[in-house]
Amino acid sequence: MTRLLITASAALCLAALPPAAQEEGSGPLGLPNKAGASVLMTELNAIEAANIIRRGRVIPLGREYRPEMPLGPGQDYALSRTTSRGVTSTRIETTLSAPLTAGTYLEGLGHTGTGGEDPRFFNGFTPDEVAPKDGPGEAGVEHLKPIFTRGILIDMVTVNGGPMAAGQEITVADIEKALDWFGVNEPGNGDAVVFHTGWGRHWIADNDTYLSGAPGIGLEVAEWLIEREVALVATDAWTVGVQPVKEGPERDFPVSLALTQKHGILLHDNVESERLIDAEISEFAYIFAPVPIRGATGSPGAPLAVY
To answer: For the chain, which terminal residue's Cβ has fewer other Cβ atoms within 10 angstroms, N or C?
Structure first.
């Protein structure tokens, strides 16, 4: 299969979708109003991703959920156990109390929206529509399609000559250098792009540093990815967008607004991309099924890279 098939326009991809996916009230790029850019991953993307698999090796990219992991302000993690003993068996039930945006997690369409007096999320949803008091909301992760698509690694540690620093921005020139270095075609329609910055080295080892900022992409790269109609962007940091931003208030998220709020592109944070480096691969099948928690604005879980 050629890349020409996969890099067809969003309109052509939508034409191949079943009628149920082409519902009215569409958002940017004509995308269904609750599924975002996940609809860009069609049967063609799944076939191409499957054709990448040659050795049958599976790499989990999710970090281990544990109390020591970095947690944001007001976030807590607790795992409790209840044991029940019978005559012939013993059962142990575990209950996890933690934010859905802790550890390795997928940012849903209702996670980040604009601020001000009239805040809006993807497709113009208001906060009350995303998180109503008496319902599941309009942008829950249960509406997203499962992810099975071509994944490519942008190894910024190699390009940069070492791990990146907080506030260091990835440029289009960096991406083009990485793609050329490893002989990988640029991302196209429905693909997943994984950035390895080396920031994961601070995970648990130095949580204060990890949460203080992050290397990442700026609006230049965000627009480049939007033009290529990718479905998902992942990073080994807690945010895809560079932090702190060069301009704007502290912890502003212009990249998230450009990718997700405007175009429905999904974001995967805290991914253990160093495992891709250890495996010496830069192209793979990227697989993830969001946990269909009705009304949730994010999903925990471990994405897989298969090659």
So the answer is: N
pLDDT, tens digit (0-9, with 9 covering 90-100), for 184-199: 999 999 999 999 999 9
| Residue burial 193-227, b: 16+ Cβ < 10 Å; e: rest | bbbbbbbbebbeeeeeebbebbbbbbbebbebbbe
Tokens coding 307:
């090659």
With a CB cutoff of 8 Å and minimum separation 6, the contacts of 179 are: 152, 154, 185, 186
Hey, what are 7's tokens?
């890099």
Q: CA 153, CA 151: separation in Å to the nearest integer? A: 7
- 159 in Cβ contact with 241 (< 8 Å): no
**pLDDT tens for each residue of 118-149:** 999 999 999 999 999 887 888 999 999 999 99
The phi, psi pair for 290, rounded to 5°, reads -55, 135
Cβ atoms of 108 and 299 closer than 8 Å: yes
